[in-house]
Structure formats: structure tokens, C-alpha cells
Hints:
two-stranded parallel ribbon; 15% strand; single chain; elongated; 5-stranded mixed beta sheet; alpha/beta
Amino acid sequence: MGTVLLLVLSVIVVAVVVTGLVRAGRREARAERSRLAEEARRQARRSLDEVWAMDDRRFEEYVAELCRRDGCTDVRRVGGAGDLGADVTGRLPDGRRVVIQCKRYAKHRTVGSRDLQTFNGTARAEHRADVPVFVASCVFTRPARDFAARHDLVLIDVNLLGFWNSGTPLTSFLDLDIGRSGTNRRLHPDRD
């Protein structure tokens, strides 16, 4: 009887110790996932701070680099005086012609529908875009988003730019419902 009792107590002690170790391991794994997620947010923030510090030409080159990374071909930065709304051109991996307008604004600014109307007027007619894309380092106004949805323009605002920068491929943004996604609230200039 004493041996059986000792065996049962040993099993209980081992079970308690193992349960404690498993719980501690789970807590440690959750803490590590949380730490990694926070580090990813800090890294994306540093990257976006770098974007806001770029000049217009460097921002266009940055967007062209992201296109190349995602398998686009014939990518060229063509922005400058007289570019007629095309800052970057190229071909998507499936062969469609992409024309990109870039606006590197301060984070507290917005892009309105007037800029999109101008781009829409030249992207397809002048540059033969199959996929017109407007990339901004800030957010788009609600009227701008509504206009883009009606005219099949792809919008990449500061939030999506963070995802693109972090490895999400350009093609993932092509079928988003612009009218229902994102935000049109300005970021405060001093807020992270």
C-alpha cells in the first residue's frame, strides 16, 4: 500500500511539474510572439520615417525598387517635369502594363480627388496603363477613394505602403475594394 501511495504521489508531482513547465513555455512563447510583433511594428515605423524623409525623386526610386522586388519587369522611373502623371512604369509579372503616380507628402497631409482625376486622365490614355496605381506616403480623402473605386484606380496609402515595404507583393493590392478599405483620417504630424 505504501509503495502504491508513493507511486501515485510521484505521478502527481511529475504531472504538476510538467504542467507548470508547459504553462511557462506557453507564456514564454506568447511573450516572444508579442516581442517579435512589436519589433516588426518598430521596424516598419522606422522604414516609414525614412520614406517621409526622402525627397520626391528618391521616393519614386524606392517605389520602382519595390516593383522590381515583386517581379515586375521593364521598370523605369520616368518622373520629373512633363511626366504627365507617370513616375514609374513597368510590367507586372503577368505582363500587364503598370503606370504609377507617386506622391511623397508629409504624414499629416492627404491626397484629394483632384490629383486622382488628373492621373486618371493620363494613365490609360497617354501611358496605355492596364493597371494605374497611385502611391502616397499619406492617406487619401473619402472623395478620392470614391473616385478611385469608380474608375478602377489602385490606391496604396501610407498603411498599405507599410505592408508593401514589409514584403507584401504589389499584386496583393490590385483587387482591394478601395471604396471600403483604409482610412481617410489624417495622421497627426507629431504622433507615431
